[in-house]
Amino acid sequence: MASRRILVLGATGGTGRHVVQQAVDAGLEVSVLVRDPAKLSSLHPRVRVHVGDVLGEASVLATAVANQDAVISTLGVGRSFKSGRLISRSAPALVAAMQAQGVRRLIFTSAFGVGATHRDTPLLPRVFIATLLRDVYADKQDGEAVIQASSLDWTIVYPVGLTDGPRTGAYRVGERLALSGFPRIARADVAEFLLRQVSDRSHVRKGVLIARRAGSPYPSPDHEQAAPR
Q1: Beta-strand runs (E) in the chain
Q2: Is 131 helix (H, G, I), strand (E, B) or coil?
Q3: Residue 192 to residue 56: CA distance in whole angstroms
Q4: Does residue 228 form part of some domain?
Q5: Is residue 229 part of a domain?
Q6: pLDDT at 149
Q7: Total of domains in the chain
Q8: CB 140 within 8 A of CB 117
Q9: What is the chain's alpha carbon radius of gyration, rounded to the nearest angstrom?
């Protein structure tokens, strides 16, 4: 991957940490915007840290976005069942900052079952989405509508259920996938795909599902997250 400048949002989360480490390993110039720098102790010293909140002062977000080639967002509420309207409030701020700074490429992480991907969601995950995850998913869908209506070169990535298993490279992607049961994917594999989108134009202004390749082994159950986020 050619050297590029990227800003990672959600860098202290499970997937975000993989994005940052893999980006550094690939020789990219990496910046992050975080509220608590103390959570970054394990990050590479070359990572440029901006302290602030996407929902905070617009000038802080603008400074972090300025001069980037792409923004990768892994923002989310983790295992919480309450969204706090995080995505629907942060998406307009992010779109405005990118448009003002002339940064066009946005790779945005969502979740399997949001928006058009709901049509490919098996029955059991649909039950979780309609009940326990209802607020979180509604928030994601509202935020995505803002991104999709923008003039940015966006790609929205929809991982299936996330695990903390190792990076395997054994995954499949597509605007539609045949899925069953509770499909899963390692965060490290999702991070790899997110980073590929910095240079890959195949999915610009599209949503794309990502899931473990059929026939490849599942990570240990000890590392599984119960439902997609």
Answers
A1: 5-9, 29-34, 48-51, 70-73, 105-109, 153-159, 161-163, 171-174, 184-186, 206-212
A2: coil
A3: 29
A4: no
A5: no
A6: 98
A7: 1
A8: no
A9: 16
> In which band, very low, low, confident or very high, does the pLDDT at 226 lie, cut at 50, 70 and 90?
very low
Residues spanned by the domain of 16: 5-223
| pLDDT tens column, 201-216 | 999 999 999 999 875 5
Q: How far is 111 from 141, CA to CA, in rounded Å?
A: 10
> Does a structural domain hold residue 62?
yes
Largest CA distance in the chain: 48
**What distance in Å separates the CA atoms of residue 162 and residue 21, rounded to the nearest whole number?**
18
> CA nearest 159: which of 147, 171, 142?
171
Provide the CATH number for the domain around residue 42. Answer: 3.40.50.720
Q: What is the pTM of this model?
A: 0.90
Instruction: List Cα–Cα distances, 41 to 44, 72, 186, 192, 221, in angstroms.
Output: 8, 21, 23, 22, 28
What sign does the CA torsion over 135, 173, 21, 34 have?
A: negative
